[in-house]
Amino acid sequence: MTALLHSIDTKGVAILTLNRPEKRNALDSELIGLLKDAVEELDARADVRLITLEGAGDYFCAGGDIGSMSRVAQGSSYANEQDALALARMLHVVDAVSKPTIALAKGVVVGGGVGLLACCDIVIAADDASFSLSEVRLGLLPAIVAPFLIRAIGLRQLRQYALTAERFSAAEAQRLGLVHRVTPRLEVGLAHAAIVADLLRGAPGAQADVKGFFSECYGRGVDAELLREAALRLAARRSSAEAQEGLSAFLEKRPPNWIVAD
Fold first, then answer.
1. DSSP-assigned states of every residue in the chain
2. Which of 97, 138, 166, 186 sits in a 20 to 30 Å window from 12, CA-based?
């Protein structure tokens, strides 16, 4: 049984499913590698518009596979470091992918799974989902996910949940900014479909520019240099073929050519 399932529909909506339900979709070295490679491949495909991450069964992701981590820790320091770097590189690929990403969080979301959510653009959570950063209870720390979570929910909030390892609800995850939308479990698919429909109305090149430029802006002060970069970025996009098509379509009251008819 493959640890990662993937599909792409006729509109370019790709779905990646963590497929280790017997392990609550915990991340081992195989799944980490498969996920990194799959996201890189999908990012390079012109026919893919967006990427959804979900977990098979009743869970999203229970974090790192404890058995796998224990075995790695007993090996050489080099192998231990390379294993940790593999997780870091996978999360960076998910975070930096140019296409919109959606995560569907159901059931248990722990550690690295919480980090995965922080790397996605949009997170939909079932109202009965629970979240935790439980590393300290194992004598560990959530080092790899920390940079992404500090950005998503802030340093002080992250300190609380990383130090206590307490579980928190989907409603609390939404309040923190980790989750964008909370919905009854049976309606997660409907919420996903609505967001997909909105994303498909946007121009793919413009969406890639949104992600890229916003990342460049993050953490910078608003000064003359940044404002000039913003002006140049907007001017370049306005003169692009994609923007010309979008503006013409609006004036002519027709759908732009990137919208696929039902």
1. --SEEEEE-TT-EEEEEE--GGGTT-B-HHHHHHHHHHHHHHHH-TT--EEEEEESTT-SB-SB-HHHHHHHHTS-HHHHHHHHHHHHHHHHHHHH-SS-EEEEE-SEEETHHHHHHHHSSEEEEETT-EEE--GGGGT---TTTHHHHHHHH-HHHHHHHHHH---EEHHHHHHHTS-SEEE-GGGHHHHHHHHHHHHHTS-HHHHHHHHHHHHHHTT----HHHHHHHHHHHHHHHTSHHHHHHHHHHHTTS--TTSPP-
2. 186
